[in-house]
Amino acid sequence: MKLFHTFLTGLVFGVGIAISGMMNPAKVLNFFDIAGTWDPSLAFVMGGALVVTFIGYRLVWRRKAPLFAARFQIPTSTVIDGKLIGGSALFGIGWGIAGFCPGAAIPALGAGRWEVVLFLGAVAVGLALARILQDKPLYSRSAKA
């Protein structure tokens, strides 16, 4: 049942990304082109996501535990350090250059574009490199890794 719900969640996310046009990197890049061909649709997509998330969290936090786990797994650190700032900057730079967010690029694989494969490959290499530099194993089944 957990696998079915995971699939259903991914399907809803992918369909939402496709309908919103966020699989098209030109749409994302046009959002950043304020002085040129600015397209505000990304702001509406993000605003809609914030509304859904706000309501969803209010409903979920009423539960004692999630449906498929013993407890909620939420970040405990409130530290704003160089790793957080550097990672955020790299994410933003990559998003601005490629026009893809990793979350939106995964559903975009279905479009069969080589750019998406190249982008996700670069993301995978970057993640592996970050783990190597932090002296962590490349793969771990632990949720705390």
TrEMBL record:
The chain crosses the membrane at residues 42-61, 82-110, 116-133. Keywords: Membrane, Transmembrane, Transmembrane helix. Pfam families: DUF6691 (PF20398). InterPro entries: DUF6691. This is Sulphur transport domain-containing protein. It comes from Ruegeria intermedia.
